[in-house]
UniProtKB/TrEMBL annotation:
GO molecular function: RNA binding
Species the sequence originates in: Lachnellula occidentalis
Alphabetical GO biological process terms: rRNA processing
Keyword tags: Nucleus, Repeat, rRNA processing
Annotated localization: Nucleus
Basic and acidic residues composition bias: residue spans: 314-332
Protein known as: rRNA biogenesis protein
Domain Pre-mRNA-splicing factor Syf1/CRNKL1-like C-terminal HAT-repeats, chain residue ranges per copy: 84-334
SMART domains, A to Z: HAT
A Pfam family recorded for this sequence: HAT_Syf1_CNRKL1_C
Chain segments carrying region Disordered: 29-68, 314-347
Gene Ontology cellular component terms for the protein in this record: small-subunit processome
Length: 347
């Protein structure tokens, strides 16, 4: 959805900040394997074990190279990096590798209390990890409790959206749907929640009709200056979603361009979407309509003809290329005549 984000200026739903249960546990699995190799090494003859027992081993280098491999390693590192959410989250995942759910929760609580109050992002990362933890291993009750507390200590909208992302990632789509319904009621003044819910309905649930029903609700809730952006977002979704309808998207663009015919940025959005659709006749139609727009500025016309010419070089033939060149020359002549006439009228 990169094009949608760039055109609309509203970021897509954050996927939860940390996929701690996967990435961090992978690290822990690696360390566990290393630990098992160490255990195999312990099967060496007792004489060798006695000789090594009297030697003090400096494992600082190993810790730097391999990362923490035990509770004491994590505790030692946290003394020097108490504000590192990544380290705390890895510690939580390490405890889960040992099937220590209660200890993983304790680590999260310690992290929340320990991380500096000024490091909001680091604290937020731990809260999200805790929600991930409860979603994966806890109960509905423990998750609800953690969620309510997270809302008290963080931006409530961010927490709602993070939990929605967690639900989506874990395949709990009905729960995500319920949470989105709460989101658009509690935070109806935020364009982002409407965009994210629509994206979820179009792309995850394939419920285009439900998504379309959101737009009139959103425009009633949002200030008028947000309506254009949101309408374009929904038009993009119609083009880009498997459950959407490019024809509906075109109709939405037509409505917008009838009000803003000189907005080349909107025309370019439509052109990009049609280019992805690949119908050359429709693409040429967009190019031709723009150059016929009244009041088109010379610089805008120059850039547009250049883009059209480059497109024809890649997709057209000599005849279509010559046609663009002729239209550009005609536009320049017409614009020059109009300018001359306007000058005479002003005398």
């Amino acid at each position: 959805m990169g094009d949608l984000e760039n055109s609309a200026g509203i970021p897509a739903l954050n996927a939860g900040g940390f996929d701690w249960s996967a990435k961090a546990l992978n690290k822990v699995d690696k360390r566990a394997n290393e630990d098992s190799e160490d255990e195999d090494a312990d099967d060496t003859p007792k004489k060798k074990k006695r000789r090594k027992a009297n030697i003090t081993i400096d494992r600082t280098g190993d810790l730097d190279a391999n990362g923490p491999q035990s509770v004491s390693d994590f505790e030692r590192l946290l003394l020097g990096q108490p504000d590192s959410s990544q380290l705390w989250i890895e510690y939580m995942a390490f405890q889960m590798q040992l099937s220590e759910l209660s200890k993983a929760r304790d680590v999260a609580e310690r992290a929340i209390k320990t991380i500096s109050i000024s490091d909001d992002k680091e604290k937020m990362n731990v809260w999200i990890a805790l929600l991930n933890l409860e979603n994966a291993y806890g109960s509905d009750e423990t998750l609800e409790e953690a969620f309510k507390r997270a809302c008290q200590y963080n931006d409530a909208q961010d927490i709602h959206e993070s939990l929605a992302s967690i639900y989506i990632q874990s395949g709990k789509h009905s729960k995500a749907d319920e949470l989105f319904q709460t989101l658009v009621k509690k935070f109806s003044q935020s364009p982002r929640v409407w965009k994210n819910y629509a994206d979820f309905l179009y792309n995850t649930l394939s419920s285009a009709d439900r998504a379309r029903a959101l737009l009139p609700r959103a425009t009633q809730s949002l200030p008028s200056h947000e309506h254009l952006r949101l309408t374009l977002i929904f038009a993009h979704l119609e083009f880009n979603s498997a459950s959407g309808s490019p024809e509906r998207g075109r109709t939405m663009f037509e409505g917008v361009l009838s009000t803003f015919p000189k907005r080349l940025d909107i025309w370019r959005q439509l052109l990009d979407l049609e280019t992805k659709q690949g119908d050359q006749d429709i693409i040429r139609g967009v190019f031709e309509r723009v150059v016929k727009t009244k009041g088109l500025k010379p610089k805008g016309a120059k850039d547009w003809f250049k883009q059209w010419s480059e497109w024809e070089e890649k997709n057209g033939d000599k005849k279509t290329q010559e046609k663009v060149k002729a239209k550009a020359e005609e536009w320049v002549r017409t614009a020059g005549q109009k300018k001359a006439n306007d000058g005479q009228d002003g005398e």
